[in-house]
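look at this stuff:

>
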Amino acid sequence: MDLTNYVKPELIVVAAVLCILGKAVKKTGVISCRYIPFLNGAAGVAICALYVFATTKLSGAADIAMAVFTSVTQGILVTGLATVVCRVTGKEKNVTQGNTGEDAERQTAGRKAQGSADREQK
C-alpha cells in the first residue's frame, strides 16, 4: 500500500509536526490527554487548509467547495497518520525500556489511585 495514494506527499510532513505537537502538549499537562487527538485534528485541518488554499487557484464556488473538502479530508488523514505513528513509536520505546504500553498505563493508573487515596486520608 502506497501512502501517497491517500495523503498528498507534501502534507505527510504535517503528521510529524502533529506528533511533536501532541507530545509537547502532553508534557505540559495543560490539556487532558483525552483531548489531544481533537487538538491535533483541528491543527491538522487548519494546516492542510492553509496549504490547499495557498496552492489552489480558486475561480468559483465549486473550486472553493473542493478546496474545503480537500482540506478537511487531508487534515483528518494526516491526523490519523500522526496518531498511529506516535502510538507505535511510543509503545516501541516502552518495550525497549522493559515495559509494554499496557504496563506503563497500569503503573500510571496505580500512581493516580494512590495519590487520590493519600489526599482522602489527609
